[in-house]
Design a protein that fits this description.
Rossmann fold, five-stranded mixed β-sheet, 17 helices, alpha/beta
Length: 479
């Protein structure tokens, strides 16, 4: 019989317990902002072809292998990689964004991960003492843990253990405001949680050993798993409805010659600040990671008087969990359908090359790596004066400071040049003065270079989008 709480929420008891496990007991709750976290990183020493030792995080090694998988006989280009210490620094920022207080950290060096505990039993005993001394509430691993590894580590440390993916999922859950964003995060959480149901304790099973317990039946684990699968199907159906509505909206936009420009980039590169600077909007711009989850689209007028739609998207990160990429595919379709992609980078970060490489990996997964692109180097106001003076824009790169408004005019000009939709052309026009609506439209939607009044006719030279030229074709003076 379903409980009163279950009836009220509309979810099966098992699903409600499981979701509560992820969102309350197994993650950093937004309300529990004082939780004390101890960070654990893993530095894998791998040998390159010339036998020189190099240090990589375990996750970076996996990304490196996937990214360099090319056809036989083809030499893969080098991919910038995060060092183990840089990765641990990023984990510290993620933990802070989740509301935790970092009270200690350790970086373990190994030749290969330990299959049972990732970092080895001896090191775990050392961490247990350090975490106890620091009065840590939970242990954050800068690595994805298998369900068995997580259980083994928790048994040794006697504290909650959270891996990198679970931490990112928690941050996403905190920042999702719209129904669409919440559905996408819930789907990712449920898919992450499914393989971790096993081994949560004997209380999960309705069948036991001994007299009176044998016979047909379904274990509580199987019941919970079946109900969670049902919930996953329901969430996917709702997200599919969102995707269908978004596709319909996109079709309506595409019926009018208005191009879409998508902002992409590493998390905290300043995309939302740049979005506000270009559109005069007031979307949330925060130094916290993943402050923007819900897509925002606003209109922008280019110097040619063409209007485009600018889309702000979720930030990317190293080893962005695949479940999140899949769940947010409805949102990220704006990138796939965009006429131009603005790749925003933090010009002041020492890890710009590594972050850009991770953005390329996500764009490749979205099959958007061949889209026309403009690289926007943001935050130049944080550079030293001599560094700023040495910056040079080119056809594919523009340097800006979104917070100071520096370079915004140049960026709009460059977007105008790169967009092929509704191309701009220069025409001579002869329009009777009585055609006031036509003259007003041209004044609002074109660049007028010259204007002369003769015998009740206005002769002008203007630069206008093709959609405007078609509307005034009868007044075009053929040369």
């Amino acid at each position: 019989m379903r409980s009163a709480e279950s009836k009220k929420s509309g979810k099966p008891d098992a699903v409600r317990r499981a979701i509560r496990g992820v969102r309350a007991s197994e993650k950093i709750d937004a309300r529990d902002s004082g939780e004390r976290a101890f960070l654990v990183g893993l530095d894998l020493r791998v040998r390159s072809r010339n036998s020189a030792k190099r240090s990589l995080t375990a996750n970076a090694q996996a990304s490196r292998d996937a990214a360099t998988s090319v056809s036989p006989g083809t030499k893969a280009p080098p991919i910038p990689e995060f060092s183990a210490q840089e990765s641990l620094d990023e984990l510290r920022t993620l933990a802070t964004s989740a509301g935790a207080v970092v009270v200690g950290e350790v970086l373990q060096k190994r030749d290969r991960p330990d299959p049972a505990t990732l970092i080895g039993g001896g090191k775990l005993e050392e961490i247990e003492g350090a975490a106890a001394s620091a009065d840590a509430d939970l242990i954050l691993f800068d690595h994805d843990l298998s369900p068995s590894q997580q259980r083994n580590i928790e048994r040794i440390l006697h504290r909650r253990v959270i891996d990198r993916t679970q931490l990112i999922l928690d941050i996403f859950a905190r920042h999702a405001k719209t129904r669409e964003g919440q559905l996408q995060v819930e789907l990712a959480q449920l898919e992450y949680m499914l393989p971790r149901l096993a081994g949560r304790g004997v209380e999960m099973s309705q069948l036991g050993g001994g007299i009176g317990t044998r016979g047909p039946g379904e274990t509580q684990l199987e019941t919970d798993r079946r109900k969670i699968y049902r919930r996953i199907r329901h969430v996917k159906e709702q997200i599919e409805n969102v995707r269908r509505i978004r596709a319909q909206q996109r079709q309506r936009r595409e019926s009018v010659p208005v191009a879409t420009v998508a902002l992409v980039g590493y998390t905290n590169a300043g995309k939302s600040t740049l979005f506000n600077a270009l559109t005069k909007a007031e979307v949330l711009a925060s130094s916290q990671m993943f402050a923007t989850l819900d897509p925002t689209i606003r209109g922008v007028e280019l110097p040619s008087r063409r209007r485009v739609l600018l889309s702000d998207t979720v930030g990317f990160i190293r080893n962005l969990p695949h479940t999140l990429v899949s769940a947010f595919r409805a949102t990220l379709e704006e990138v796939q359908k965009a006429a131009l992609v603005l790749h925003v980078s933090d010009a002041g970060s020492p890890l710009t090359a590594e972050q850009d490489a991770q953005v390329e990996l996500v764009l490749k997964e979205l099959e958007a790596e061949k889209k026309p692109r403009l690289h926007v180097m943001n935050k130049i106001d944080l550079l030293e004066p001599k560094q700023r003076e040495a910056l040079l824009d080119d056809e594919r790169t523009v340097h800006v400071s979104a917070v100071r408004g520096v370079g915004i005019a140049t960026l709009l000009e460059r977007i105008d040049q790169l967009l092929e939709e509704d191309p701009v052309s220069r025409v001579r026009l002869s329009i009777p003065q009585k055609e006031g609506k036509v003259l007003a439209m041209l004044a609002a939607q074109s660049r007028i270079y010259s204007r002369e009044y003769r015998d009740g006719v206005v002769e002008m030279e203007a630069e206008a989008p093709e959609s405007v030229v078609r509307r005034v074709r009868e007044f075009v003076v053929k040369s």
